[in-house]
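Can't paste images in this forum, so I'm doing it all in text. The chain is below; anyone willing to post the predicted structure tokens underneath?
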Amino acid sequence: MSEFGPLLQSLTRHRGVLACLVASEEDGIVVDGTAHVGVGTNAFAALTAALCRKAQRASDTAGFGQVTFFELEAEGGRVLASGRNGLLLIVVGERELQVGLVRVELRRAVEAL
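Text version of the structure:
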């Protein structure tokens, strides 16, 4: 098991989680992760990292400071992301995902990055 294994397991145990990835904040390259069959992790992580960078630019422009949590809700599912030390922890979930529980676990896991 990799050094990120326990973090990934803590998040993937939640019902509705389809993938959990550790990726570089800078370019979205996947460092580690786990996903159900059919979830394209490399492109997904790169695009999520790009969205997080754009969110940070918007936050900076508004004078809000560091973005600590990113959430995207769409018809077919959800994306949650949080980062630290140059890494992003990304959770891909079904629409019915219990966001509150996963968010608490995600914030806890990010502290270990």
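Residues 5-97+106-110 form a domain with the Beta-Lactamase fold (CATH 3.30.450.30). The longest strand covers residues 17-24.
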